[in-house]
Specification:
With 218 residues, this protein is mainly beta. The chain has a single domain, classed as Beta Barrel (Lipocalin). 11% of the residues lie in helices and 39% in strands. It contains two helices and nine strands, in the order H-H-E-E-E-E-E-E-E-E-E. Helix 1 packs parallel to helix 2. The N terminus is likely disordered.
Length: 218
């Protein structure tokens, strides 16, 4: 499937046949786009596996509007000892776009409004990423999550990928579900055409003393 994907990108962006095939689909996407702009191909962090990506994964679909804050700004997080579910803790995350799993990861939400993610793929290629979150409604949260895009050798930073989430935690605080977007920009802040990916995300809480949330999609 990776070879077929590369051929589709070559036809779409007139890529050379000898282009390096990275291990992540964000790498393939950024390489295709930047090659079309006469810029070296890039490898991005915090992304998904090319082996899981369907041919139409880059087709953008409408993103639901985020729920507006009820107080004109971010709402304070419910403390662990207070009333209502809390997002803080460690989560298993599964990203789906166009009906296919495009990324797996582990995500930690901190009570100070920051979060940290480890996505599939080797850390040397940039799969460890920071983020910040705000509570925007009843059990509903929004995040912004930046990551670097690298060249095909995973050596030089050539752009920025921005991930945004809008998720709602379950009443028992053990799962969440919502939507995500991925957009890639050059270092001047210009959106790279054709790089938007939109999909759904689910999270399963990981706890000490409870069974680990297997299985993982393959």
């Amino acid at each position: 499937m990776r070879i077929g994907l590369l051929r589709n990108l070559q036809r779409q962006f007139s890529l050379p046949q000898t282009i390096r095939i990275p291990s992540r689909a964000k790498t393939l996407l950024a390489t295709a786009v930047l090659s079309a702009l006469w810029v070296p191909g890039v490898a991005a962090g915090c992304g998904w596996s090319a082996q899981r990506m369907p041919p139409g994964v880059f087709s953008a679909v409408p993103l639901p509007q985020l729920q507006a804050p009820t107080s004109g700004g971010a709402l304070a997080e419910v403390p662990e000892g207070g009333n209502g579910p809390s997002m803080t803790g460690l989560w298993k995350t599964v990203f789906v776009a166009d009906g296919a799993v495009v990324n797996l990861g582990f995500n930690t939400w901190h009570s100070d409004g920051t979060e940290w993610a480890l996505d599939q793929g080797p850390p040397v290629s940039g799969q460890v990423c920071p983020g910040v979150w705000e509570k925007i409604g009843n059990r509903t949260y929004a995040t912004v999550h930046p990551a670097f895009n690298y060249d095909a050798t995973n050596t030089y930073v050539v752009g920025i990928l921005i991930e945004r989430l809008n998720v709602t935690i379950s009443s028992d605080a053990n799962s969440y579900a919502g939507t995500f977007t991925w957009d890639s920009f050059d270092l001047e802040g210009n959106l790279l055409p054709g790089t938007r990916v939109v999909g759904t995300i689910t999270g399963t809480r990981i706890k000490v003393g409870t069974p680990f949330p297997f299985p993982f999609p393959q």
